[in-house]
Amino acid sequence: MILLVVDGLTSGAVEKIPLNYLGKLKQEGVYYKELYLSLAAHPKQNNDVNDPCYYPWSSSIPNPVMMTGTVFIGQTGIKETLLQYSYRSLGKNTAFLVNSNAYEEIAIGYDLFRQDWTSDDDSPVFEAAQKTIKETDPWFIRIHLQTTGAGGYRDMRAGLNIWEQFSDYRARVTKADSLIFQFVQWLKANDYWEETVLFICGDHGQSDKGGHPPFEPGGDKTSLLILGKGIKKGVSYDYAEMIDIAPTIAFFKMFQHQNIARDKFLKKLLLEKKNYKNEKKILKS
Questions:
Q1: What are phi and psi of 69, to 5 degrees?
Q2: Which of 79, 152, 223, 281 would you call most buried, defined as having the most Cβ atoms within 10 angstroms of its Cβ?
Q3: Is residue 23's pLDDT more than 80?
């Protein structure tokens, strides 16, 4: 199970730029054009539970929402409901690779966590992912590419529109598009693909001016592509929500995710329900 997060991948980028490789991969899976999320703000971390500005996370709001399956990310004990803990309870190994130091709080509980790369290049993250898969073959791996979001911030400071031909965002998301396709080809060439389910999405979207100011259009939605074992091919839907991701990932590994929100998984993406015998058990949660 691979969760591949392209930082700031905004809804419509696949079609508008266009991202040709992701466009091809859409034909191999289920595509949700708009993945809605909570407020795409990035509060300053504050661990004082008595402070009105209490925020126990180092990353933007949608990241813990994605990994817990709930928007109530200030609850006592919420960090123990991060998705990776469900794998740990089963004795399954996990990994998180990212080229940014902003994700330490959602990284607790992984067997392997690496963040020691520059946000100017996503290539080393994929190189590390391939090495990790070959050496430990984790049951769950989150790969987070930071360069696209960093490019959006550069455009914001430079007064550019992210859709302009020479914007930094456009260049970086196009490069990420190519690297993702190469990674999928590597999985196929090395006999990992037949047993893999791959989620590709942003952690938030992007304002036309770059960045993700919480009250500007664009930052509040991204896109989601799911492909691999047991997934329908060439199917598109208009809408999904960020809180759907954790329970859906849990469903594919046949365990009950301990998320507090208890959202249901994205049933429509399944190729054949008969392949998932525990569906009724999980739906009772």
A1: 80, 20
A2: 152
A3: yes
